[in-house]
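User: For documentation purposes, I need each entry recorded in a consistent format: the amino acid sequence on its own, followed directly by the corresponding structure tokens. There are two entries in this batch. Please keep commentary to a minimum and don't merge the entries.

Assistant: Recorded as requested. Entry 1:
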Amino acid sequence: MNLADPKPPLKVLLAAPRGFCAGVDRAIEIVERSLAKYGAPVYVRHEIVHNDHVVGRLRNMGAVFIDELEEAPMDRPVIFSAHGVPKSVPQEAERRQLTYIDATCPLVSKVHVETERHFSAGLEIVLIGHQGHPEVIGTMGQLPEGTVKLIETEQDAENFTPQDPDRLAYATQTTLSVEDTAGIVSILQRRFPNIVTPHKEDICYATTNRQQAVRTIASRSDVLFVVGSQTSSNSKRLVEVGERYGCKFSQLIDDAKAIDWNALRQHEVHTLGLTAGASAPEPLVQGVIEALRAHYEVIVEEVETAREDITFKIPKALAD
């Protein structure tokens, strides 16, 4: 495009709510306060949240991200990620007399408590989720190995054979797509009418709200950008929701540098939907808008479908 040519118009439908949820805010603040209290380095088991930019910033502040607890020295504090950990992890930390701080999202902790309650009541437990995701590993690790059965797909739900169909309960990974979960739950309830449901919906409020915002803008958008890292489950689900609700070109981008300008031109984009996963910082979203302004005459329309005022308390050890 010749710089003298007028920029083509582009309407950006900016989803609200988007970006950080209360659990992510809390987890990041836990790392920041730990660095302020204990000094660097502070060790974090796995990524505190699934976003490369967040992890990079905390690493520059003095956080050291490790895969396993054994990598942490005896004299430094360790933080557990927002996704939760198996019970064996804090038990090992206590055995080694490590100072540890649990940044598990309270909504994930709720699922942990739920599964333990079902187990104590003698129920067999089904967990709807994605194998290998840290949250799933953490939830399954609350109980003896083999106790929790993982269901990933509707076909899994059709094939599952319980020990006793009348002594069954289910829980779900908090970051799943509402639609995908509903399909699996419907099959389980059809096959096992007495299955015990969660006391309150397991999929977290932030996941639900962000998906609803995408549903609202998807059919109006020629292109949908979801800002988030490839490791972020809830961000990937937003892309799927965008496609399901009418936006044929929905894409997960890490930041403005990942924009494929040729693809935008090929799609003759007039309206672009924009949102961010629950672990993506707002400056990345604003960076995408600024990058778009260099190529288009941008008009931003914020589309708000819900308001969030939820906050979670910081652990007492850091509250001062």
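Entry 2:
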Amino acid sequence: MAPADRIDAHQHFWQIARGDYDWMTDDVAAIRHDILPPDLEPVLQRHGIGGTVVVQAAATVAETDFLLGLAQDHAFIKGVVGWADLRDAQAPAVLERLAGIPKLKGLRPMLQDIDDTRWIADARVMTNLQVMADVGLRLDALVTPRHLDVLAEVAAQLPSLPIVIDHCAKPVIRAGADAGDIWRRGMARLAEFPHVMCKVSGLANEAGPHWSADSLQPVVDHVLSVFGPDRVMWGSDWPVLNLAGDYDAWVAASDQLFSGLSAPDKAAVYGGTARRFYGITG
């Protein structure tokens, strides 16, 4: 595939003084500093990656506007996945405004940080998810295995809402643990819905220290087998990735993880799927 066609479908930027990154505790001190487009652009050029999708890292609309400003100033940012309060009765007006900005591609509620596993199935949230679908936005599902059943319910009730599962739903694979039958069954069930896709991203962080491509291969193989390459997209989760490795190591591991795919299938995973899902044309 041509370098310009390759897309990193999941990365982040932040500016600490903005003050809304509630998750940035001492546990992530190594990445708790400003990280902005000039930090990533030379890395993308080194690996022949033509563009990225930048994903929210704070539960505020203000941060979404901040990311949209970065996207306006940096052509390699092909899309933004932002945030809105999907339980707010006023959310439709926010969704319509955001949907009018071409580089705003979707929204991501931070489900992994919400104690109520069934939050996304709340009637108010479901109404706003349908509004998202109606105005042409997509849902990034930041979920863990406990969410797989309820996410399948949502997918069944909202067939017009494109959904992508971030980080393979964060299987519990730390220190070489097996992802488990609950995760495998849950992912297979979600794969039955043609409007649901999956990102191979964030797995190094889930595996923890001493991760390797070999240790991640069973997870990636399962995702590829149930979704197929045309519904799988690659992402780095940079700079969160830096807590477990670096971009160079993730690219090398990914090339090993996808080494068994044909050239057309690799082209889908490394860019085609993301372009189609997010409506990226440039």
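Summary note for entry 2:
The chain is about 40% helix and 10% strand.
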